[in-house]
Amino acid sequence: MAAAAYCFLLQLTAAALVALSATKVAEGATVEYQFDVATMNVTRLCSSKSIVTVNGQFPGPTVFAREGDLVVVRVVNKAQYNMSIHWHGVRQLRSGWADGPAYITQCPIQPGQSYVYKYTISGQRGTLWWHAHISWLRATVYGPIVILPKLGVPYPFAAPDKEVPVIFGEWWKADTEAVISQAMQTGGGPNVSDAFTINGLPGPLYNCSAKDTFKLKVKPGKTYMLRIINAALNDELFFSIAGHQLTIVDVDAVYVKPVTVDTLLITPGQTSNVLLTAKPAYPGATYYMLAAPYSTAASGTFDNTTVAGILEYEDPSSSNPSAAFNRNLPLFRPTLPKINDTSFVSNFTARLRSLATEEYPAQVPQEVDRRFFFTVGLGTHPCAVNGTCQGPNNNSRFAAAVNNVSFVLPSTALLQSHFTGMSEGVYSSNFPVVPASPFNYTGTPPNNTNVSNGTRLVVLSYGTAVELVMQGTSVLTAESHPFHLHGFNFFVVGQGFGNFDPAKDPAKYNLVDPVERNTVGVPAAGWVAIRFRADNPGVWFMHCHLEVHVSWGLKMAWLVQDGSLPDQKLLPPPSDLPKC
Known about the structure:
Layout: H1 2-7, H2 14-21, E1 30-44, E2 47-54, E3 63-66, E4 70-77, E5 85-88, E6 114-120, E7 126-132, E8 142-148, E9 162-171, H3 176-186, E10 195-198, E11 215-218, E12 223-230, E13 236-241, E14 246-251, E15 254-261, E16 263-266, E17 271-277, E18 286-294, E19 307-313, E20 331-332, H4 342-350, E21 370-382, E22 396-402, E23 405-407, H5 414-420, E24 452-454, E25 457-460, E26 465-472, E27 481-485, E28 490-497, E29 516-517, E30 519-522, E31 526-533, E32 538-544, H6 547-552, E33 555-560
Parallel strand pairs: 1-4, 3-8, 9-12, 11-19, 18-20, 21-26, 23-24, 25-33
Antiparallel strand pairs: 1-2, 4-6, 5-7, 7-8, 9-10, 12-17, 13-16, 13-18, 14-15, 14-17, 18-19, 21-22, 26-31, 27-30, 27-32, 28-29, 28-31, 32-33
């Protein structure tokens, strides 16, 4: 199986590039894939289990495309679970039917059924990723999306010698569907993972896993672009390579002003392209690449382990290629920040800035049509009558909410209900734009931590310029929440600790070159302000990308109405759209 994981690391060779451009036409090509979803047995940590995979690969296959291409993926569900695939970060302009979150834009693909996802890559280049978007199946159903610039368009930085995907994942010895099912029954927190992985491999710091180690083999003086993706279910991660700095050139498929760091932070859902320049001469050493969690949550509620890969140098003086990687060399280890180093996280995120050039402008809405203030955090539901629950106390279950509304997935898809005008009984359009009962969000929490349930949406007119402040709370615990907005990129115009002050904080906004992303961390006991233009008709999910919090209800949706012009309207649904 380790070999299969390495197969996944096939690079963008000249032949692959030729194949990618073979069907090019003036306005982009059509690139087609078939995804066969099925189970297979995999052994990790000396323990075997059945996992759901795509095309028998773990991680799954890479989708290669160029900016402007039409991507067509036929997903055939041969597994025993309902399935849907989300193309994380793809704008999906007018193609919401292909976005993928189950019961939001589509009913799931039932066992034995298939669905063809079609979408155009519009105005994006860099690294995104795809993953299952139903229950916890994305634990093993995920892979990279590599978007190259249009033919003949260079990177806005020196082209690397090689490009390598680096995907962080999270591994349970147990069946993850059973893990979340049990947690939802008891109302308690789910069992934490047993390991993190790099490209599906846990590496030498875990028992019995030295043979399952990701190794990056480099040549002195060469530059490598690592396409980094955090596909872990529940953990933000620090990442560092001993003895080497990393230069960030792109986040969430948007170019940024280059930033050189020793350590980067990446939340679940985020991607980042970084340049790694190998040392100019053979160093006679090897180097650990480490990833470990960032969390302010209580100990025991997350996987506090470290995953290692190994950076190896090819010895140019060796005449035997098979002996070019010497095993008996000193092995250096980087120092990662402390697990709860929130100031490191704040300083790191503040350094990211859009490129904001004439060719790659930062089109930040300077004026705002509608302002929203959402609290995001944990809460409780009461236990069933005469029941015992394993929540924060015996009479409660864990929950999570946006503006005190814990989102309930409907039994049919929201987008279809909206498109057909049959929304009654499916959703309401009265999501609160501000908290109904304000409180000291980051201070002593209120005695009553119960939250309400609902399938409530915000309705936006086409073209609305939106400002959203997301305020973290200290209810139960003050945690960072990486929030992902489907269907849009947004600009991160401000962030801070404590309670947002509408009188003072907006004066500090960056409206010139703020970073543009699709997933942003709401700081622990702090706030983040984002702006976006609602120029994509459809129903768009927004949720925390910590899967345990999604299960507890930390999610909501925006309904963007059609505009008046033909190219401002949602296209009709495809004929093979799955039925509930």
